[in-house]
Write a structure and sequence with these properties.
Blueprint (H helix, E strand, L loop, with lengths): L2 H34 L4 E2 L22 E12 L13 E12 L2 E8 L4 E11 L2 E2 L7 E11 L11 H4 E12 L4 E11 L11 E12 L4 E10 L12 E9 L2 E8 L6 H6 L11 E11 L4
């Protein structure tokens, strides 16, 4: 073979190799660009509803959706047959929750326990996502207030500020799998002066909650709030609650067991007097019905 032919073959091999190498590089760059521009996927239904058991979840009510909530809490099971294991005694809360936007909701309610009026505002700050935007958690901020309107003796003069309590919570949750979610709730409470014997009006607590979905319409839930000893009242105990959520179309049924009679954040977090190990277990349920008030 002549030298010129050998040179031509070497040039041809080099050209083909360069072309293949350039094509591989181009394909690799296209894949990297495609991955970097992948759409953002947001976690949905970290919790099934806007509440876990008594406390709030990170979820907010969709825009222009009204949620009518009726909550019942019966007496302690250990009250015996005379009180039909607590069913003869009941407290109730009637509430209305409304979605202003998909990330902002408000709510108001009235409880028969201490004739309490309450309201709240909840804003979703972050959403768990992956893809172009990678966010490991969903985060919401809750601001709530309540006012005890019980009639007091004439000798005890109280102001509106003495009767009103406020609660601020940061709700941080992660949907760990398709069926399991976990949430923590750092909490600050400024209690009222007349409902409970708090040594300090400023109370710090932290909560933990979880949801395990069993079927499409059935889940089990649990939540626990720990009060820091420096601000905890000696006569209060930490609240522990378990629930079963049943979804039936537009209706939602939540059955639960807890050691607290309270139906708002200030009461069940910082004013629980029952203890599980003493048999102070209360049965309760929530009924929720949602109404679409505008276009979806």
């Amino acid at each position: 073979m002549r030298l010129s032919q050998i040179g031509f073959l070497l040039f041809l091999c080099f050209s083909v190799s360069e072309k293949v190498s350039a094509q591989d590089t181009t394909n690799l760059m296209n894949e990297l660009v495609s991955e970097s521009q992948s759409p953002t996927t947001y976690a949905k239904f970290t919790f099934d509803y806007t509440r876990v058991v008594d406390g709030h979840s990170v979820e907010t009510q969709p825009k222009k959706v009204l949620d009518l909530r009726i909550s019942h809490r019966f007496g302690p099971v250990n009250s015996g047959l005379y009180n039909f294991f607590g069913l003869d005694n009941a407290t109730m809360r009637l509430g209305f929750d409304y979605g202003i936007t998909d990330n902002l909701m408000i709510g108001v309610g009235h409880s028969t326990f201490r004739k309490t009026y309450d309201g709240f505002l909840k804003l979703k700050l972050l959403r768990q996502s992956e893809g172009e935007v990678n966010m490991p958690v969903t985060m919401s901020l809750l601001a709530a207030f309540s006012s005890n309107t019980l009639t007091m003796p004439d000798s005890l003069k109280t102001t509106f500020g003495d009767r009103t309590a406020s609660v601020f919570q940061l709700l941080i949750a992660r949907k760990i799998s398709q069926g399991f979610s976990f949430q923590i709730m750092p909490t600050y409470i400024h209690s009222d002066k007349i409902s409970f014997n708090h040594p300090k009006r400023d109370i710090l607590a932290i909560g933990a909650a979880a949801r395990q979905r069993l079927t499409k319409r059935l889940s089990i839930t649990g939540e626990y709030y720990y009060q820091f000893p420096e601000s905890k009242s000696p006569s209060s105990h930490n609240v522990l609650s378990f629930g079963i959520d049943i979804g039936t179309g537009g209706h939602i049924f939540q059955l639960h067991f807890t050691n607290s009679i309270g139906l708002n954040e200030k009461t069940f977090i910082s004013e629980t007097t029952g203890r599980w190990n003493k048999g102070d277990i209360l049965f309760g349920f929530n009924i929720s019905r949602v109404f679409q008030l505008g276009r979806k």
